[in-house]
Write a structure and sequence with these properties.
DNA-binding; globular; two-stranded parallel sheet; 110 residues; 7% strand; mainly alpha; two-stranded antiparallel ribbon; 6 helices
DNA sequence: TGGATGACCTTAA
DNA sequence: ATTAAGGCCATCC
């Protein structure tokens, strides 16, 4: 497990109910701006094991990247948290987890 | 047009 | 056979 993976896990776990983050943001916070893809990989492969709030991670376009049934499930989970999901789209203006980056850096100590 | 982004795909242990 | 890490390029603003 690398520092990067650990950080990604930590960050995802920090996302509060009713908020969402994007792959790119998470990757950037983990000091790896080009690793958005890895974030997605981590999500689909470690969600169950680490009980991650995977449904709170979406793409930067503000929509759900998942296709088919899984995507539908994610929509439902987000809506149950009070997030408006209009046709697989989410209003980032309202729900993006714009938290204090300093706070995260402090938590991750870098 | 150009820059950012990505529930992947391949390689390594 | 499994599980983890990382990257480059087609796609979408």
């Amino acid at each position: 497990m690398t520092k990067f993976t650990e950080d990604v896990l930590e960050i995802i776990l920090m996302i509060p109910r009713g908020k969402v983050m994007t792959y790119g943001q998470i990757a950037a916070l983990a000091n790896n701006p080009r690793a958005a893809r890895q974030v997605s990989r981590i999500l689909h492969s470690l969600s169950k094991k680490y009980k991650l709030p995977w449904h709170r991670v979406i793409n930067s376009k503000g929509s759900i990247s998942l296709t088919g049934e899984l995507g539908f499930i994610q929509s439902g989970m987000l809506e149950s948290e009070g997030i408006e999901v209009i046709n697989k789209k989410i209003d980032l203006k309202k729900h993006l987890f714009k938290l204090l980056w300093k706070m995260i850096r402090k938590a991750l100590s870098f």
